[in-house]
Amino acid sequence: MSTNQGLIKPYASQLAFVSRCLDSALIVLAIVIVGWFNNQAVTSDFLMAGLLGGLLHQILADFTDIYRSYRTESLWAEAKQVALCWTMGFVIICLLGQFSPVEATLFSWPMVAQWFIAVLSMLLVWRVVVRSAMRRLRSMGYNSRSAAIVGTGSLALQVASRLKSAHWAGYKIHGFFDDRRKSRELDFDCRRAAYGSSIECDAIGTINELVEKAISGELDSIYIALPMRAEKRIQDILARLSNSTATVYVVPDLNVFEHLHARSFNLNGLPAYGLIGEPMRGLNGWLKRLEDIVIASIILTMISPLMLFIAALVKLTSPGPAIFKQQRYGLDGKSIKVWKFRTMKVMENGSDFKQATKGDNRITRVGAFLRKTSLDELPQFINVLQGSMSIVGPRPHAIAHNEEYRGIVKNYMRRHKIKPGITGWAQVNGWRGETDTLEKMEKRVEHDLHYIHHWSVWWDIKIIIKTIFKGFIGKNAY
Question: Is residue 9's pLDDT more than 50?
Answer without folding.
Answer: no
